[in-house]
Structure prediction request, 352 residues.
Amino acid sequence: MYYLDPKVENLYRIFDQNERKDYLRLDLNENPGGLPQEFIEKVLSDVTPQFVAQYPETLHFTEVLAEYLHTDISHLCLVNGSAEGIRYIIQAFTSENGRIVGVVPSYFMFQIYSEMYGREFVKVPYNDDLSMDVQNIIDALTDDTQLLILLNPNNPMGNVYSDEEFERILKVAQEKQINILIDEAYHYFYPKTFIKYALEGEHVFVTRTFSKLFSMAGCRLGYVAGCPDGIKMVQKLCTPHNTNAFAMKFAEAVLTTPGMLDSLIQNFEIGRKYLINWLDSDGYQHKGEAGNFIFIKPKTDAQTIVDRMKAEKKILIKTYPNVGEFGNCLRVSIGEQKYMEQFTAALGELDK
Ligand SMILES: Cc1ncc(COP(=O)(O)O)c(C=O)c1O
Prediction:
C-alpha cells in the first residue's frame, strides 16, 4: 500500500508568499527598502562562474561569524534561514509525543513543526493586558517537558525578559533537564541578548537570522548557537550544503562593511520613531516595538483594514485575532520613514 504520513496529510500550511510582488510588504517583518543598491552591486561584482558552479564552502563564513560573535566555530551551525534551525532543534531534542512549551501568540512555525513531527505543543497564553507572566511559563515546565521555546523579543507581542526573569526560568529548566530554544530573530532591533547562555553553557540554543535587520530574507541564512556537543547534533540533521554561497557572501559583506549595520539600525530607528509619534498623536493603542514590527489596535475592523490596504493601497499588513484587550489587531513591519509615511497615510484614510 502506498504510504503517506497522516501527520503530513493532516498538516495545514499556508502558501501565500508567492503573490506579494508589487506590494509594499509590511506583513512578514522584512526590510521594505533593503540594502543599498550600490552595496548589492559591489558584492555581486566579483561573482564568477566557478562561484556559482561550486557547492558552497561554509568554513570561511562561519569563521567570520564566530569572530564577530567572539566565539569559536564549534558553537555555530549555519542554516537556511532560522526557521530551518528551529526545525532541527525540535527534531533533535524532542521525541514523538514529546512535550514542548511555548508562548502564544508567537511565530507560528513552532506549532507547525510540533504538529509535523507529532509533538505536543503546550501553549502559555499572554495576559489580557498583553503582558507575559513568567510564573505561568515556569508552571508549565513539568518533569516530562523536553523543550521550552522563548523568543527575545517575541513576535508579534514584542515582549522581552529581564535577566532576573530569564534566570528564574533557566533555573527550573535546568532542575528538570529541559532544553531551551531562544529565538532571537529580532536581535539588533532590541539589543539585549541571551546568547551567552548558549555559548557558555549547555542545553540552551539561540537561533538568529539574517532576514530581518540584515535585510537578506531572500537569501535565506540563519544560524544556531549552542554548546559544541549540541551543535554537532544539529549539524547531523542539516541537508547537504544547506546554506547558499550568495547568502554567505552578502552576510559577510554586511558584517565587515564599516558602518553598514549602524546605518541599517539608524534608518529603522527613524522610521520607528516616526510611526510611534504618528500613532500616539492619532490616539492609537500600540505595543511590541522591541522588534521591527508593531501591534496596533485599530479603531475599526482589523480584517477590513487588511483587505482594503491590500486592494486599494497595495500595502500588505497582517491581522491577529482575539489578542487580549487589543481584540482583533494589526501587525505592521517597521521600516524606513518613507514606507511608514505611506502606511500612516493609508491607515489614516481607511481606519475611520
Ligand atoms: C520569531 C521568528 N523566528 C524565526 C523566523 C524565521 O526567519 P528566517 O527563517 O527567515 O530566518 C521569523 C520570521 O518571521 C520569526 O518571526
The longest strand covers residues 145-151. The chain has a mean pLDDT of 96. The radius of gyration is 21 Å.
